[in-house]
Design brief:
The complex is a heterodimer of chains A (501) and B (318).
Chain A (H helix, E strand, L loop, with lengths): L26 E6 L16 H10 L4 E3 L5 E3 L2 E6 L4 E6 L13 H9 L11 H4 L2 E8 L2 E6 L6 H5 L23 E7 L3 E6 L12 E6 L3 H9 L5 E2 L7 H6 L3 E5 L4 E6 L4 H4 L3 H8 L2 H8 L4 E3 L23 H11 L5 E6 L6 H14 L3 E6 L5 H4 L6 E6 L5 H8 L14 H12 L3 H18 L2 E7 L1 E5 L3 E2 L8 H4 L7 E2 L5
Chain B lengths: L4 H29 L4 H6 L5 H10 L6 H13 L13 H36 L4 H15 L2 H15 L15 H35 L2 H8 L4 H30 L2 H6 L5 H10 L3 H28 L8
Helix pairs in contact in B: 1-13, 5-6, 5-8, 5-10, 6-8, 7-8, 8-10, 10-13, 12-13
Classes of the chains: A alpha+beta (501), B mainly alpha (318).
Chain lengths: 501, 318
């Protein structure tokens, strides 16, 4: 497929030049790692990695995140609030949907309000319920009143589930959004074809078309990249990194906030005796997990959920150390030593099977018996996750610390994995949300991380580093903290050397 | 004698229809026994009791299972497979392109595997106990013991990743010419043909060896019938029954039993659709796929039975 290079002479810039202007044109073929007939174009229901890519290709949010998780306005021209409870959104002028209709306040009201309708099956139902009233106050103005002040509300709106669709959309056989690509073809579980939206309101996109498929089979996905059938793949297996690099292919390492955690339910007899949680934390050899489970592609965790790259990460907390002697002391004091403790792991939680085995081995050396129970990925999140007293979870990054705290650690959250309840923590979370003062908020977030590390039953040994592989002619990719493939938003930035000609 | 064929075939069709009903009920019952339902896969980790309840209600999953089955069956009688619980698309629309793909793959594999295996089987039987026969036996036994994913993955590694001769994916969307078709289909078809080949060769050889050692064949040989005429006219018609059955069994596995090949070549077929649907508890899609597989199996085995009945020596009397 011949591309159109509007960059003129710059289209021939040799690849050694570090900063090259993007060239327009070409067809990009991308293979994601997960895909099935459950794929959807309904923003409210996006739940798989390839879904998020589609979300960013065809739709826009009112706000967007950059690669350091800083919030910028997108479809919103301004988003302001005096009291952090009532938010005023003014929409960008001259934005059109793919069907030509202009973007208006009614579209925004419809898009956000539908998350609260139970039958929509929205992923962010709980967050949507914090939007008490959503109403249009003018053709380009929307007013949203929250149930409580929340300084991170603009970050919530950047989640691709809250993308804006046309007022009244009820079917999602195709996508009618404002995004950088129009939907030329969408067959769930087979392929998605996007064409460059010439009327896109923002910068880019550069490639003429993007074809997105999913190849869940790991070896087949790598082979597709190596043989030149696709140009970009998500989720490179760390074990295959050397093969990919030896073939001359690029590897993008993204420091995402995803983590696999080990949760001990504090409401079970198991954890009633003091010291068990701390003993397990002492038994986890984080450096060994980093080296042998993630083959070096992870960052050490400190039993609190804020990734080390975040400006809000509390680096003053003493780092967790591997201390089998202390673990043995604690277990003996708690009367556990020698008792058989079941531990549930599954391929559903990335790396958890390997971490469980390492933990079992470390425990055996101090005379503690851990019974590792490996259960299938199928049905794990409903049948085992948060039900087993001692089991693994896998948490995806969220755009702001308050959202991470809210989901996993607030007393009222249905996803409080260790059933940790601390009213002081809840009060600090509410205060942090209601304060504009960034220094004060940083202080609160720092203290909250200390409380999680000290009190909750969640162990976070590592943050996983996401790996994507790309062909040498693919340009414009940058690692992002927001997720793999530039926070799933590579489509508008990526370009092909020589226009893919 | 010929008239007796009609009730026989009729009875065969009746039992086929009965098995179809049984399979549909069994598949529904088994999928109902699986833990969780479609709401779990739609909502995933973000599920809350309220949202699960609401979604279950809107998908009618809160109705009793027998009622859901009767409603589904009612729709089926009107030719309506229902809608997917996951994406709301009509199941028929999801199934049709994939069924087309699967039939294409199965057809191409059969076209390659059947003649080759018949030829190998018959010749091996004719030249029994020679070096050629031993070679064929070792080859087929070897092939039947190597799993298909090994053959397919090795083929991809050699022809696509190393030599760059063929595409690693069978991208059906990009096929417009015969040459592209051959390139895209060579590896999956060859892998499938190799796996199905073995069984058919073994069965054909066994049936032919049996017939060739029958007294009437010896009689024919003594009367001076040439080797080709002996095999084709005298022996083959009596070996058709078991051979056709072996072929039918092998071919029926080409539709539903190719999950691995579909996964390795990222080929969108029905087998993968069913695996997806089972994982996501998308019962209407599971049902439709099961129905298709069962139907293909029944059609093939019924056809094989009819051929066997029709070629029974007694019936071929002039």
């Amino acid at each position: 497929m011949a591309g159109l290079a509007t960059g003129g002479a710059r289209g021939a810039v040799p690849s050694a030049v570090p900063v090259a202007a993007p060239v327009r044109g070409g067809h990009l073929r991308v293979a994601g790692a997960v895909g099935s007939t459950a794929e959807t174009l309904d923003p409210a229901r996006l739940s798989m990695a390839t879904d998020y890519v589609r979300g960013h290709m065809f739709y826009d949010g009112l706000t967007a995140l950059d690669d350091a998780l800083v919030v910028h306005p997108a479809l919103a021209e301004t988003i302001e609030s005096d009291d952090l409870t009532t938010w005023h959104i003014r929409l960008r002028r001259d934005v059109r949907f793919h069907d030509g209709a202009p973007l208006g306040a009614a579209d925004v009201v419809f898009s956000l309000a539908r998350h609260k309708i139970p039958s929509v099956g929205a992923q962010q139902y709980m967050l949507a319920r914090t939007m008490d009233t959503i109403r249009a106050t003018g053709p380009r103005d929307v007013e949203i009143v929250l149930t409580a002040p929340n300084v991170d509300f603009p970050a919530i709106l950047a989640m691709s589930n809250f993308a804006i669709i046309r007022d009244g959309t009820g079917r999602f056989e195709t996508a009618n959004g404002t995004g950088p690509f129009t939907c030329a073809e969408f067959v769930p579980g087979i392929r998605t074809l996007g064409r460059r939206n010439a009327a896109f309101w923002g910068d880019g996109p550069f490639v003429d078309s993007i074809e997105l498929i999913a190849i869940p089979d790991e070896m087949a996905r790598h082979n597709a990249l190596m043989s030149g059938d696709v140009d970009l793949i998500a989720s490179v297996n760390p074990r295959l990194v050397r093969m990919v690099q030896a073939g001359g292919f690029g590897l993008m390492e993204s420091p995402v906030g995803t983590y696999t955690d080990l949760a001990i339910r504090l409401d079970t007899p198991l954890a009633r005796a003091p010291g068990l949680v701390e003993a397990i934390k002492c038994l986890l050899d984080r450096e060994q997990i980093r080296r042998s489970v993630f083959l070096g592609y992870s960052r050490l965790g400190n039993d609190q959920p804020i990734a080390p790259e975040s400006p809000y990460c509390n680096h003053d907390l003493p780092p967790a150390v591997h201390d089998p002697d202390r673990a043995r002391f604690l277990l003996r004091r708690g009367g556990f030593l020698g008792e058989r403790i079941p531990l549930v792991c599954s391929p559903a939680a990335l790396g958890s099977v390997d971490i469980a085995v390492l933990l079992q081995y470390a425990a055996r050396r101090i005379g503690q018996d851990l019974a590792v129970r490996r259960v299938p990925a199928d049905g794990y999140w409903t049948q085992y996750w948060m039900k087993a007293p001692f089991g693994f979870g896998n948490v995806n990054p969220r755009p702001a610390p308050s959202l991470i705290f809210e989901m996993g650690f607030a007393s009222a959250s249905p996803w409080n994995e260790s059933r940790w309840r601390d009213p002081r923590f809840d009060a600090m979370l509410a205060e942090a949300r209601a304060t504009r003062d960034d220094a004060r908020r940083r202080q609160l977030y720092g203290d909250m991380q200390a409380m999680i590390k000290g009190g909750s039953g969640v162990c976070i040994p590592n943050f996983t580093t996401s790996l994507d592989g790309y062909a040498p002619h693919v340009r414009g990719l940058r690692p992002s903290q927001a997720g793999q493939l530039m926070g799933y938003d590579f489509a508008r930035f990526v370009w092909l050397d020589g226009g893919g000609a | 004698m010929r008239r007796a064929l009609v009730p026989l075939v009729g009875r065969r069709f009746a039992t086929a229809a009965l098995s179809l009903v049984f399979v549909v009920v069994a598949v529904f019952a088994i999928t109902s026994l699986l833990p969780g339902d479609a709401t779990d896969s739609v909502l995933g980790q973000s599920a809350t009791p309220q949202s699960v309840q609401a979604l279950r209600h809107s998908l009618h999953l809160d109705r009793p299972a027998p009622l859901r089955f009767v409603l589904w069956l009612g729709g089926l009688l009107h030719g309506d497979f229902g809608r997917s619980l996951l994406n709301g698309l009509p199941v028929a629309d999801m199934l049709r392109p994939r069924l087309h793909n699967s039939l294409l793959l199965a057809g191409a594999s059969a076209l390659l595997a059947v003649p080759v295996s018949l030829l190998l089987g018959i010749t091996a039987a004719v030249w029994r106990d020679t070096l050629y026969d031993r070679g064929v036996t070792v080859l087929t036994l070897g092939l039947v013991s190597v799993p298909e994913f090994v053959i397919a993955t090795l083929a991809v590694f050699v022809f696509a990743t190393r030599l760059h001769l063929l595409p690693a994916l069978s991208d059906i969307g990009g096929v417009h010419t015969l040459w592209q078709f051959l390139r895209a289909f060579f590896m999956p078809v060859a892998s499938l043909a190799l796996v199905t080949l073995a069984q058919m060769v073994r069965m054909t050889r066994a049936a032919m060896v049996d017939t060739l050692s029958a007294p009437y064949v010896e009689m024919a040989r003594l009367k001076g019938v040439g080797p080709v005429r002996l095999v084709v006219v005298h022996a083959l018609p009596n070996a058709v029954g078991p051979v056709v059955n072996a072929v039918a069994l092998s071919l029926s596995s080409l539709l539903g039993g190719v999950v691995v090949i579909e996964a390795v070549f990222a080929y969108p077929g029905v087998a993968g659709l069913m695996v997806d649907a089972v994982t996501a508890r998308d019962v209407p899609t599971v049902q439709a796929c099961a129905l298709v597989f069962c139907l293909a199996y029944l059609v093939l085995t019924t056809l094989a039975d009819i051929v066997t009945i029709a070629t029974l020596p007694g019936r071929r009397a002039p």
